[in-house]
Amino acid sequence: MKNIRFILSFLAFVLVFAGVVGGFMITVDPLQFYHKAAYEPLYSREQRYQNPGLAKNYEYDTVILGSSMTENFIPSKVEEALGGKVLKLSIEGSTSIEQRMIADLAFGTGQVKTVLWGFDYFTVRDNNVRDAESFPFYLYDDNVFNDYKYIFNISNIKHAFGALLLPKDKYPQYRNLDRLNNWDSYATYGSKKVLAKWIEAWNYEQTSGESEPDYELAKQRFDENVLSLIEAHPEVEFKIYYPPYSVIRQQVWYRLNPQRFYNQLEIKKYMLEKLGSMENVTLFDFQSDESVTYNLDNFKDLSHHTGAINQWIVEQIAAGSHQLTAENVDELGSKLEHQAKTLVINENGPVFSLTLTVEGQEASFVQIPTTSKDQVRVAVKDFAEGTGTAFAYDNDTKQATLQRGGNTLILTADNPIATLNGEAVNLDAPAVIVQGRLAGPLMQIVKLLGGNIEVTESENTYFVNYDIQW
Fold this sequence. Notes:
The protein has 470 residues and is an alpha/beta fold.
């Protein structure tokens, strides 16, 4: 009897305790999942947890969707450019299915009139949510019976107490919805950081490039998660844009994962095919705008740009600039390919695109992607074949011999001194082995062999042509 009484008492205590905790959590509702907070909220930086409550319970008519590339939009600034009442629902590292899930919650309120959507190709490479085992699916469905996962979550309970008890000047970055998850103010930008990330990416892509997902699957995911949403809402205006990554990002894909590079070009054509005739959809493409992508001071890594670029993007969209159409999609794709193909990444200076010609005719050889000490390098064998210069190479000594117009030039790997007609010559940059080939400083090689290079720069200096003349 005592045991039964103890069990009943314990169960009663558990029920009362659960009721108190549940009542407290539903009332405080730290993620605003049930209602908008009546107090000054302390927002969560976990977007996959915070966004459902914002989408369900806030007032807006415009939503921002996308990955971390859209996090630096400031909703009040977007309102100034596009009008309306804006809510940012960006999700860092999100796939298209995650973006669709939060979009469905927003559309379910019946408020949405406009969508500003930053589209990254990587979002359709994978159709899974991030960290599927811990993903809060219960915040995205209509099943009240799994809400206990929210109500009795210890992290959420701590969040609730923090929202009520912490000083109002504590964690200011999580109290201003306009600046929530905006990392612009504490990010470090510049070429030094970007080039360091470039080295990391170069090593990574060499091992991951072979695992590029099938392009047909990417199209299928676009159809399921993006196209179907747009088709279901002809009353909503969709402004979809391709964000500008640094040109170095494109170069890495072009060189080491070309399938991914070309897939991103093809998905634009496919999206245009599916969306181009819809009156409620406008596509914008910023990926080949060299005024942004070649200036590494705009970036903190290979992809993520400053908040000023986000503001510039929305202003361009408001002005109707940078639209992607059936008339320019091939041209813009070719432009991006040319930029990635001809890019010179100067370890000691700005990046630029370089084209090579011989006596005014397009050269059959290209520069090596990296440079040093402001010296553009070329593969010596390719250079010789492309200019009609005699060439011999000793694999044991890593020594190349070039002969032209009575001059004999000998280059040795990693040796800063060359030999010209038997005389030692200091090189501006030593010949080195790059990707299994001996590469040497182009301008000095031409000069030592009796030639000349005429340099032509475009007005913005991002595009340069070297014409080799003999």
